[in-house]
Amino acid sequence: MTEALELHVSSSRGRYDLTAAAAGDGVLEVEVLCGNGNGELVAQLSGTVPAADLAVLGRLFSAAAVAAKADSPFSSLEELRARPA
Fold it and tell me: Could you give the CA distance from residue 18 to residue 39 in angstroms, rounded to a whole number?
């Protein structure tokens, strides 16, 4: 990615890096890397998203974090896909 926005956050759990760059037509190429306290990569998300949807995705991740703290049961992707629409 060129001409990218780079954000970094550190916590007791590790380091989190977000990079976003314009991919054209209002679309962003986004990459999130998560490293543990030893500097090892433990998670990675990447893909494209319309720039206008970035705030909505932020709210979605925040809601997931609240649900995880509340010990809400998480279903597997296979279980979610099998549910009727």
Answer: 16
pTM for the full model?
0.73
Q: Average pLDDT by consecutive 10-residue portion of the chain (85 residues)?
A: 83 93 94 93 96 92 81 69 75
Structure tokens at 31: 């990459």
The SS3 assignment for 72 reads: coil
Nearest to 32 by CA among 58, 59, 70, 52: 58
SS3 78: helix
- Written as one letter, the residue type at 65 is A
Task: Check: CB of residue 13 under 8 Å from CB of residue 37.
Answer: yes
What confidence score (pLDDT) does residue 85 get? Answer: 67
Task: Give the C-alpha separation, 61 to 51, whole Å.
Answer: 16
